[in-house]
Amino acid sequence: MEHDNNITFILSLNNGETIHESANIYKSLEKSVWLTSQDYISENALSITSLSLVNRDNQHFNLPSSGKNPRFASYNTTKPIGYNFFRKVLMNMDGSINPSDSFAVIVAEFEKHFIELWVNENSDVWINHRDK
Question: What pTM was estimated for this model as a whole?
Answer without folding.
Answer: 0.85
